[in-house]
Design goal:
This protein has 394 residues and is of the alpha/beta class. The chain has two domains: 9-287 and 369-386, Alpha-Beta Barrel (TIM Barrel), CATH 3.20.20; 289-320, no CATH class. Helix content is 46%, strand content 10%. It has 15 helices and 13 strands. The strands form three sheets. It has a six-stranded parallel beta sheet. Strands 2-1-13-12 form a four-stranded mixed beta sheet. Helix 3 (80-93) packs parallel to helix 5 (121-132). The longest helix is centred in the middle third of the chain and has 22 residues, at 153-174. The protein is globular and about 75 Å long.
Length: 394
Amino acid sequence: FGNVSSPPNYWDMELGTKVPGNREMCANLLKLTQYFNCIHFAGGYPVEPVDIHASVRHLDVVYDKLTLTDKAMHAYSLGKERVEDVMEMVRIAGGLSNEEFEATPRIYTNINSTSPLKHDHPMIDGCLRMVRRGQAVVVTPFTLAGAMAPVTMAGAVAQSIAEALCAIALFQYVNPGCACAIGTFTSNVDMKSGAPAFGTPEYMRATQMTGQMARFYGLPLRSSGVCAANVPDGQAMWETSNSLWAAVQSGTNMVYHAAGWLEGGLIASPEKFIMDCEVLQQIQRYLDPGLSATGTDDIALDAIKSVGNEGHFFGIQHTQDRYATAFYQPFLSDWKNYEGWEAAGSVWTPDRAHTMFKNIIANFEAPAIDEAIREELADFVARRKSEGGAPTDF
């Protein structure tokens, strides 16, 4: 599971409206990425820091990612300079020689096709630079049924598979055996407005169909935890839960945007991030094989006999030995009954998440990093900024 990636806007309970992202907002979402163990990798920028010019944005954000988190690292595949800079920064952060960096994947990138039936040059160029140095690539067509792909799910998935495989075949030709995964981002549009819809039954089925095809081709699968809702409300959570369960049921290996996504990817929200992490941890608990263990102590016939048909299980030794770890304990959900909830002061879930967000940021401790490495990273960023970073047309 990875954090939300690339929304241009940010929303939280304090602001109450969406605003363009900035570096502080991006850094705070990176801190949440580090804090929650259910988040395994740091995807793209959790919100675009548009206060940093696009030519040097990757330098500042990757520096923040490498110093605020120790999660698996991502590079945007947007041409030569950004990919080369990020690979070098990851090499520096790992204290690796070029040979050690290239010996195994240390970083990954993800590209989207320009549906229908097209890849663009900067993304393919960036991927080719990655695979030549032994790094991992994920190819994820962005096919919206009824708009950029056929209105039928079989047609949309077929087009998506074709768009992904042609790029993967190219990368395998350049570096046979290079690390590639296939992605799915096939959903439908609202045929009344043309707006993208996510977490729909069609989205779920397309993800599962792509999972079957990924297994057929022997490729790892990437999918997403997405929704179309504009705020962290009930719609946001049921759509995201639909997306996440489709990922689980499809055999997905890598779930993008698993926490923090709103408004079809236009908004990143810390409250939504924390609410999603509660769902992710419950999914992870559900997938724990120990939950359905069937040993003698698990079937508990002796405990059932000891209680009989007139007692209860709260106080018996079998329960006392296990109660602390028997069940999933939520960090955000409130399980009090209505009267207890009212007596304690009722607080809506997004408000509880906002309070938790503020506490996490106030008490955040970054992972340890060697000061010599930090200085080398800072020097690299300063040098590349002085050289102009990546060229832009503005």
